[in-house]
Amino acid sequence: MTTAPADTPSRIEGLLLGIAAGDAAGWPSGRHRAARLPDWTRRLTRELDTFAEQNATTTLPVPIALNQPPEPLRLGPSDDAEWAAFTAHAVLDAYDGLATESDVPPDQRVRSALSLAWNTLADEIAAAAARADEIESARIPLRARISVRAGLGNLAAGLRPPATGHDNPHYFDDAACVRAAVLAVVHPG
Question: How many structural domains is the chain composed of?
Fold first, then answer.
């Protein structure tokens, strides 16, 4: 394996900015940001959506912004950008130590850094599950797609890739695409 080009950090930064911009402008991002609003606003939004569908109404008042801080309403990256950044952080950590550990091939360093990052996260999830009375009430320290949560749960239970992704109720999800895009910067072609 050849070493990554010298401009790899800036290429990863450009990729992340592109993913973040697209993610922030996408429809799911607004739904994800809604979690930062008070519960009553999400309930009222659901009720108004139901009313609009049942009554063929196209324009409704938007009460979620009344007397609320505007930050959750602003554009911002969502889960895709966060998972791409998670992967990029692990990749950059791997390349950060190349000068001091030149006996370890770069591709092995990337694999090890990714494995460490995912296993650390899986351990946090396992610890949260262990603190809960039952798994359904566990306060998991992240928001993620079903496929990612299931994969992390599998990893915490001792499964290893590719079984962590295959033994998953949402194995067909495209959640890995943004993480793979970061790896494509390091391994072009």
Answer: 2
What is the CB-side half-sphere exposure of residue 68 using CA atoms within 13 A? 18
3-class state of residue 18 by DSSP: helix
Cβ-contact 91, 113 below 8 angstroms: yes
Q: List pLDDT tens digits, range 7-31.
A: 877 887 888 889 888 888 887 787 7
Q: Are the CB atoms for 168 and 131 separated by under 8 Å?
A: no
* 68 within 8 A of 37, measured Cβ to Cβ: yes
Q: Provide the whole-model pTM.
A: 0.74
Contact 150/169 with Cβ under 8 angstroms? yes
Sign of the four-CA dihedral 84, 151, 27, 79: negative
82-94 per-position pLDDT tens digit: 899 899 999 888 8
Structure tokens at 101: 């550990």
Both 33 and 50 in one domain: the answer is yes
Pair 19, 178: CB distance under 8 Å: yes
Residues 96 and 69 reside in one and the same domain = no
Tokens for 14, please give them. Answer: 């450009």
